[in-house]
Amino acid sequence: MTPERDRLTTGLTTQEAAQRLLTDGPNELAVAQSRRLGSMIWKVLTEPMLLLLFACGAVYLLLGDPHEAIVLLCFVLIIVIISIIQEHKTERALEALRDLSSPRASVIRNGQQISIAGRDIVQGDLMLLTEGIRIPADGVLLTGINLNADESLLTGESLAVTKIPADPVPPEMGAAGGEGTPFVFSGSLIVQGTGIARVLATGNRTAIGQIGQALATTHSEPTRVQSEMQHVVKVIAIASLSVACLLALGYGVSRHDWLTGILAGITFAMALIPEELPVILTLFLGIGAWRIARQHVLTRRIPAIEMLGETTVLCTDKTGTLTQNKMAVAQLFANGASHICSDSSAELPETFHEVLEYAILASQRKPFDPMELAIQEYSQASLTQTEHWHNSWELVEEYPLSKELLAMSRVWQSTDHAHFVIASKGAPEAIADLCHLSVDQTAALMAEVNHMAGQGLRILGVARALFMPESGSPSGENNHDLPPIQHDFVFELVGLIAFADPVRVGVPAAIRDCRSAGIRVIMITGDYPATARHIAAQCGIDSPGGTLTGHALAQMDDAGLLQRLQNTHIFCRVSPEQKLRLVQVLQQAGETVAMTGDGVNDAPALQAAHIGIAMGKRGTDVARESAALVLLEDDFNSIVTTIRAGRRIFDNLRKTISFIIAVHIPVIGMSLIPVIAGWPLVLMPVHIMVLQLVIDPTCSLVFEAEPEEPDVMQKPPRASGASLFDRGILLTGLFRGSALLLTVLAVYWMALQQFDAGEARALAFTTMVLGNLGLIFIHRSQSASLWHSLRLPNPALWWVVGTGMAVLLLALTVPGLSQLFYFGRPQWHNVLSGAAAALACIVLLALSKTLRDRLTARFSVR
């Protein structure tokens, strides 16, 4: 045996791998670089708001007031720092997502199979290749069974090519393409079979690296909500600049003070431009994806977060998602008798030994499949001290599972070399076919299968055969005498083996949450109808229309299937291709569909669904690449948690937009009305900057961190394509902002009747700042009262409130700052009067909100 073969069971040591990683570098190609600090600063400095501030500074210099220009520069620095912190926080969240989405690779090190990040694989590693994975590095195949690879990424050929083990092992890679070669290439897809390959090249030294393919580079297109946001900002910006120019022109003509007119126009433009909108959208979606990742769900495509709140149908598979995917042998059937396997330590009756004997022979020696693991565990406890345990037998050949025959067989050579022993296991109907059972025998077998399936068990049939080559000796030289297909052996039925897979904790409650949220849960499984119904009943999935099998589905046209989909929520014996059809028919009916999948053939359905959800543990690379979300724990509860998080993100976006509209109304009004009325100006650029210091952190920090509404999963899904700027949001923001504007305007008008412009400005600004802080609490919850909103936890909120109050207090009390704010020295009882006016406005808004909710509830009951 060659040294390469000797190391097949050990691979590299941890120390060897670490040294090679240090020497050769990570196994990755050139990827899109994360944004550097310089690009972040440039982006912030070119924001419209800061450009307007620079223009204001220039005007102040022309007016001969360098102190004002310096103050504005200080505010510019503060805003730049806050904006960079926000950008950096978003970038860190996206970087964390990039790290999570790094592909995984299964390798053998220190004699153990482990899963590592694809970037950590090194030359000399032993890669385990299985159906559905993308090969992480170039290598040479050492062992393989029916291995076929799709190398179209390199060769352009759509047909998969067969790979055969190398003997002897070449030291260098050959060219891609061609049948019967031992070379496997990074980026290629294993479409069938299994194997072990030794890594010969990583990173840019691979074939795909040498031709400059940047696989990891992604080009993100604007999402629907981002496009909508950009359009709104563009329209408002054009309108605000147009009105600002007219305002500056009118002020200059009427008062013959052009510089002050330009200053008034710039102030108005600053008040109107909602520069927060693009920032909050990027921040909410980026941080939202990071928060979802902390719930063990990876977001591969940001638009999926937008779609979560629109989901009306959730199609889920059963095994490993609704259930624990921790199989245990639950029941054996042989010779017309059954045995309940409640305790593996109890002695197993001799009648059932052969079922386990041939089930273990039909399984991998080092299995990873849950059912094979269960067979091995139970057999080790029951057979190791009997003649039915064949640890010394040699594997000769393997006949894999295929679409045509859902059974696999393994050929063994006994120690006495007298004959070949063939063990087969698979779907009971496939085993019945292999054994050529009569109609009556098949009916009796399937009756027992249905009885077990009715208990929620998964069932495999077990069969055996003996084979003697024509030469009369089963020696290694005559292995070619084995028949090409399993059907050529003379099989006899041994029995049935049934497995239990318990429902995951929390699944019934999660499905109840889905039902109350208006989301239909449809279970799609390859299992038997009885098993599917039993698990569905345990999970709480109701299906008034009963079950529909894949065979029956194939006989129906789309119209008939759509009719059944109205009340049928259990689909069994369904192929991956039929999943795609189910998705398409549901979409034609106007449903927003989320679909789970894990196999290569699930990729079309995952891509077609509005939200494709791949399994992170048992899913193939192709499924994960096709999906928008990846469940790192393969848990149904994670899906519902993600839907809840998606609804929270969208709700908080709507709260933020309503808040932005509300706080801009008084700023716009107090920038425009005094000019039209001929009153002294209330707001200068310095005031706008202070207000921005309240608005921006509130949008980015406070509302993003708000918890979900108590009834977030009691509301129906959001209408497909619903706008963030719908009528309700706009009217709510306009109403609350107008109420505060009238309050500030009244305070300013009354103050002008009694005090000079400086004192009146101070009182009006105090009312506006305190009113804006009050609007935060009004917008925190769509349903909670003002008193309840005050008690909801959110540390960022109190930092914002404290900072706003501190700046206002300093501006009112410190003479130098008062002068910079153009404030007079109002008496404290007058300041308290302005504060009382703001408080009264907020209380009235809270009462109107409570009244609206009660009227809505009363009319909805009727």
What would your notes on this structure say?
This protein has 862 residues and is an alpha+beta fold. 50% of the residues lie in helices and 15% in strands. It has 30 helices and 22 strands. The protein is elongated and about 115 Å long.
The main pleated sheet reads as: 8 strands, mixed
Q: What is the topology, as strand order, of the major beta sheet?
A: 8-22-21-20-9-17-19-18
Number of strands: 22
Q: What spatial form do the alpha-carbon principal axes imply?
A: elongated
- The low-confidence parts are 1-6, 212-221
In angstroms, what separates the terminal alpha carbons? 83 Å
Tell me the CATH superfamily of the largest domain.
Answer: Calcium-transporting ATPase, transmembrane domain
SS field, number of helical segments: 30
Mean pLDDT: 80
Q: Oligomeric state of the chains?
A: single chain
Proportion of residues in β-strands: 5-15%
Would you kindly provide a brief summary of this structure?
The protein is 50% helix and 15% strand. It is α+β, with helices and mostly antiparallel strands.
Based on the model shown, name its key terms:
862 residues, Calcium-transporting ATPase, cytoplasmic transduction domain A, Rossmann fold, Calcium-transporting ATPase, cytoplasmic domain N, eight-stranded mixed beta sheet, 30 helices, 22 strands, 15% strand, elongated, disordered N terminus, metal-binding
